[in-house]
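Schema walkthrough. Field components (list of strings):
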Amino acid sequence: MEELELDERKTKILDAIIRNYLETGEPVGSRTISKYTDLNLSSATIRNEMADLEELGYIVQPHTSAGRIPSDKGYRFYVDHLMEEKNREVSEMKNFVIEHTEKVELVLQQVAKILANNTNYATMVTAPSYHGNKVKFIQLSNVDEDQVLAVIVTEANLVKNKIIPVSEPIDNETMLKLNFLLNSNLNGLALQEINLGTIAKLKEQAGIHSDIISNVLDTVAETMGQDDDIRVYTSGTTNFFKYPELSDSAKASELISTFEEKQQLASLVTENLLEEENTGIQVYIGNESPIQTMRDCSVVTATYELGEGVRGTIGIVGPKRMDYEKVMDNLKVLKNSLDGILDRRNGQT
Amino acid sequence: MEELELDERKTKILDAIIRNYLETGEPVGSRTISKYTDLNLSSATIRNEMADLEELGYIVQPHTSAGRIPSDKGYRFYVDHLMEEKNREVSEMKNFVIEHTEKVELVLQQVAKILANNTNYATMVTAPSYHGNKVKFIQLSNVDEDQVLAVIVTEANLVKNKIIPVSEPIDNETMLKLNFLLNSNLNGLALQEINLGTIAKLKEQAGIHSDIISNVLDTVAETMGQDDDIRVYTSGTTNFFKYPELSDSAKASELISTFEEKQQLASLVTENLLEEENTGIQVYIGNESPIQTMRDCSVVTATYELGEGVRGTIGIVGPKRMDYEKVMDNLKVLKNSLDGILDRRNGQT
DNA sequence: ATTAGCACTCATTCATATGGAGTGCTAATA
DNA sequence: TATTAGCACTCCATATGAATGAGTGCTAAT
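Field assembly_structure (string):
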């Protein structure tokens, strides 16, 4: 539908304006375009076309006698229709880091860092929510006279533990019974599948030790995480200073704060993590982003899936004139490196 | 020795200059002091004294016709001799947060945040190194045909786990034997006490399963942490923007980067964490700090001790004209809240 | 339909002028 | 001898204004 608004010449001119602006960050004038393109048109003609493009909302003038810069709508058009998908075979990305690091959280922190270094934008990576993940193994053991250790392992090899205080020692026989009880009832179940019936049954069978069962179930819930405390790893937040349009104290401070708070970043994530079966890449330009402080930025996110149902998000935040091609290319490569990583080797927390 | 340099009048004037500068952040002139103090001296006299103080190195002039600002030496004198130790009974600090949060790492993150909000400076809190901590309990269990889970609990109730791949399933009897072996040999030992002899003996007794023992020992080492990856929680890094002398892009960016990297921050810590039995509070003014990027800042740190040998550091970084009294007061209160917290309740990781 | 030409706008840059804060020094004073 | 008043001087900060130049919109010519 939008395409109808723009004939080929206007499209070419818009493309040229945006590409030029992405490079320089300066408003681009008619004379520049007149030479930059192979259209062989005078600056005057370009000026007329630019006036049209402005009226249509694709570009704006910062002030009367300046060149034009792309509007949000202009960027959107660029991302949707003009941009080339590079799909370079291999970026210089250090995949080996991913292969060799042991812990998932370190990998993710690394990913954030690599991406930030590579792109010169701020990055964030959310730890996966283990939504839908299943219990593989539960074990209680005596640590002390008055403490019991509960360990829970999930199908994705995520391990969580909790120390539970008990009023009096539990003998070995009881412990064996409890362990059997837990494993036989919970193994293979996802959080959503543990219903009140199961819980009641478990507690009943546990008798006087039902409080321990409660504690274990709490930990299970926490492990499989109704993602209330999504972890977010960030990097390169000072990259904002590299772009004049974001680097004045007020804006930079606001942005960096948002990255420090992390919580807010989660809102970007939850959105497209659950709702969509989207394997692709999401681009938010300016006000399209749900985060207010990023109204002058563009945000590009990708969803990765370490293993069945174990999903997280990688995101890049930069100026609206970011190098979308490079960013998306980088995201694709990293996404591919992360996808299915749990099936290839064993992770832990 | 220093006191000999300054008679009472000079001391009063210096004190007045510094206090005034701490408030305003502007160079302070002779006329201001003439009124600010109860000395009843004319500005001319003050000027003479200020010339002396400058010659002695306690204050400097940013440029010819400006007032004076404290030098590093001046601040040092202030901190050592002039400042009042407030020791307010209770600051408005939300101790309940500390009491009620469950996990140590969350507590520390909270501490960083509270402190940053309270002081308007950037803060960092290092997770404790469990140096000298002892093994309380080790357990191996079968998770899979080809995976074994190792769980290690220390005296301080720190729990770590690792999933170890094995080439072939291990039967229950062997597993019991290995568990007994590990516990009987390692329980009660600190990392430093596990020597090559112990290790050799263990491996010998484990026979064909010595590789598992190696893996467990690795995890033990990692748990008791030869603090190679000290965790650092930070907060309030954008507070730097509140102080003009630190808020230009270049400096702010550098500082915030340092906080983002976190590793560098560790150097501040290791220093006074191990060397000193110092229960007190450390102040680094300007170049006294080991971290280059903080040459225009002051850093105040305190060591806390969650439990026997479980020590970490809280630090505050701000402009040299920081409110030392308030900062040190805050640190004391938080330090008191954290000290011995592990003895009061059970923590975990 | 395109282009050349021109008047106009507005941000940026530079030099210059102005005001004020604060000093150092000297001479007068208690 | 210690203190103070007074004055010339320095230097920053801010304002002012002119010059520059990039870029536009419009009109008339091609």
